[in-house]
Amino acid sequence: MPIEILMPALSPTMESGNLAKWLVKEGDSVAPGDVIAEIETDKATMEVEAVDEGTVGKIVVGEGTNDVPVNQLIALLLEEGEDESALEGAGENAAPKKDAKPEKAEAAKTDDKPAQKSDEKKTEAKKPAAADAEAGPAPTTGDGDRIFSSPLARRIAKQNDLDLSAIKGSGPHGRIVQRDVEEALEKGTAAAKPDKAEAAAPAAAPAKGMGADAIRAMFEEGSYETVPHDSMRKVIARRLTESKTTIPHFYLTVDCRIDALLALRKQLNDAAPVTDDKPAYKISVNDMVIKALALSLKAVPDANVTWTEDAMLKHKSADVGVAVAIPGGLITPVVRRADEKTLSIISNEMKDFAKRARDRRLKPEEYQGGATAVSNLGMFGIKDFSAVINPPHATILAVGAGEQRPVVVDGTIEVATIMSATLSTDHRAVDGALGAELMAAFKRYIENPMGMLV
User: Fold this and answer.
1) What phi-psi label fits residue 129: left (phi over 0), alpha (psi between -120 and 50 degrees) or beta?
2) Closest by alpha carbon to 57, among 109, 118, 125, 123?
3) Does the annotation mark 315 as catalytic?
4) What is the pLDDT of residue 188?
5) CA 24, CA 310: separation in Å to the nearest integer?
């Protein structure tokens, strides 16, 4: 029987992807590890490797197809000894047409049960373990039959104590996906899990803003242009809404004098080795902020944490995410063990991250994880602001522009270069006093930057 190649879940938040390019054609032989396709997610373009050996018998989803749901059949692989006759009937009605809209994936359903048996052989790229770890194992009905659902759908259902068996799936072969659970929450059609039905309170529908039609009605027809949301903007909107509605934000601001930091930065850059008229590094203020925050987390380890419902995760290394603006949104690559790296290494690493982020070539492991992040809008002239925490981080540091301001030193007014920085904290994990201790450490490193070179 042909092996099914499915649209892989390349990150815990991925619900669908664009099949950008096939790197194989029908009739080609592939082996495990061969790159067979390029998939565009909301964050990056990823290469997909074959897991099994065989011959490409049929490409079901053509390259250039957008919004292909996770676990959708995209190709069939013939095993040794099989010929094209084995493809008869395989994969029919399993994939949306090229450029089909996401909602048309419902045409792939035949009934509420999966069309393939669970023991049939399938192949797809390895999924990040974090997706299933947060969502829990695949649930079953009272009769022991598996309920087919995405990890994100299971996680949302688990958080709201919903019975997945009461929800009708709209994904491929009746698979329950995120939108099905959210619709059930809004309509109140999904009951609490049977074993908790008596104790569980009815799930409250999430607060919603004005509908699209109501908003459009407020503006004269023809006075605006409609620009559909792309997948990145949808993910950003969902995650920021989740952050502000589920994480109790608390804010702490300090003003840091950065004259000594600017002088040290100039001294380090002037001393950079030069090869072919190109310096080996060029350190930015943001690079020094990353280092200072990482060292501060090591100095205040109780703030280097992640909140979960059953425990606090206290991290052993200081991994700092950095918000990078890209067309259509932003992404947050993570500088691992930033406290242990030199400023020149952090600088070159960030330049590489920024370039590959704009080219959508970052790997999932490069933008997932970390306990904190830096968002710097100082280069745009922003004096100060408060950033939204990026789950599962416990903090995020918003950095404003360095500007000359009058300050009082020993009773005398003088001019100094001041930079405002605001820490947003998840108050469940980092309360006011702990956050203040972290910001005090950050201010010490920024105002005494030689400490970052020790």
Assistant:
1) alpha
2) 123
3) no
4) 66
5) 46
Phi-psi region of 300 (alpha: psi -120 to 50; beta: other; left: phi over 0): beta
Rounded to an integer, what distance in angstroms lies between the CA atom of residue 438 and that of residue 424? 12
What is the H or E stretch that residue 35 is in? strand 35-40
CB 200 within 8 A of CB 133: no
Dihedrals phi, psi of 236, to nearest 5 degrees:
-60, -45
Greatest CA separation found in the chain? 91
Q: 372-401 burial string, b = 16+ CB within 10 Å, else e? A: bbbbbbbeeeeebeebbbbebbbbbbbbbb
Tell me which residue of 134, 122, 135 sits closest to 173, measured CA to CA.
Answer: 122
Distance of alpha carbon 151 from alpha carbon 153, whole angstroms: 5
Residue ranges of the chain with pLDDT lower than 70? Answer: 12, 89-146, 151, 172-173, 188-208
**What is the C-alpha radius of gyration for the chain, rounded to an integer number of angstroms?**
26
What is residue 81's predicted lDDT score, i.e. its pLDDT? 74
Options 229, 249, 315, 427, the catalytic residue: 427
Can you read off the two tokens belonging to residue 430? Answer: 């980092």
Peptide bond into 392 cis (omega under 30): yes
* 3-class state of residue 441 by DSSP: helix
CB 322 within 8 A of CB 298: no
Place of tokens 């060029």: 282
Under 8 Å between Cβ of 325 and 354? no
How does 308-331 read in b/e, with b if 16+ C-beta sit within 10 Å? eeeeeeebeebbbbbbbebeebeb
What DSSP string describes 121-139?
-EE-PPPPHHHHHHH-SPP
Closest CA to 195 of 235, 150, 162: 162
Q: What is the pLDDT of residue 200?
A: 43
